[in-house]
Amino acid sequence: MDLGDRTEDSTLNFHFFTTDASNSPTTLSGTPALSVFKDDGTTESTAGITLNVDFDSLTGLNHVTIDTSADAFYATGADYSVVITTGTVDGVSVVGAVLATFSIENRHEPMQDAGALAGQEAPSATATPQEMIQWLYTAFRNKKTNDGSETKLFADDGSTVNAKQSTSESAGTVTKAEWISGA
Questions:
Q1: What is the C-alpha separation between 8 and 76, in angstroms, rounded?
Q2: Is the separation of the CB atoms in 34 and 64 below 8 Å?
Q3: Integer Cα distance of 154 and 160 in angstroms
Q4: pLDDT tens across 11-47, in order?
Q5: What is the rounded CA–CA span in Å between residue 114 and residue 128?
Q6: Where are the domains of the chain?
Q7: pLDDT exceeds cutoff 60 at 110
Q8: How confident is the model over 53-99, as pLDDT tens digits?
């Protein structure tokens, strides 16, 4: 089960079910323990892991909580696997069973502070998501003028032209070119 990409110092909760060979609910026994493995290495940790066997008195239902703030082992930019390292089900070892996987800030670039509004430049065709949002916010928030041949997008000060685009009209159709630097 994939628990997704989590933020640093988050708490994960999930359930898993144990059954015997006939698919009947069966208690995870034999002093069960779980470990978390990082990336493709053999380094493992039990820090922050709580396993509740027969959760809510339901045979075979197990609940796991992992507090990733419990140890520096849980670092951003890594993938993790939750594995049974001790335990049996109906007398059969289940050691090595991978129960879940997750990552910590390893699947996306989280949005940082929005920072300043877009600057005096043309919007990039290969902008980061953060830069795209800055441009959208700037375009919706700031002053714009259109004299019929050119649209200007102003900086927060209302006088500096950050970007401009040519505007034309022919037979009732208005055409706007790509934004270019206002410098």
A1: 6
A2: yes
A3: 6
A4: 999 999 999 999 999 999 999 999 999 999 999 999 9
A5: 12
A6: 2-104, 129-181
A7: no
A8: 999 999 999 999 999 999 999 999 999 999 999 999 999 999 999 99
Which tens digit of pLDDT belongs to each residue from 157-178? 999 998 999 999 899 898 999 9
Q: If you ran DSSP here, which 8-state letter would residue 56 be given?
A: G
**Residue 50's Cα: distance from chain center in Å?**
24
Amino acid at 15: H
d(CA 23, CA 1): 19
Residue with tokens 């109906």: 90
pTM: 0.61
CATH homologous superfamily for the domain 2-104: Immunoglobulins (2.60.40.10)
Sequence-separated (6 or more) residues with CB below 8 Å from residue 63: 13, 14, 15, 51, 52, 55, 56
What whole-number distance in Å separates Cα of residue 139 and Cα of residue 143?
8
What's the CA gap between 83 and 65, in Å, rounded? 13
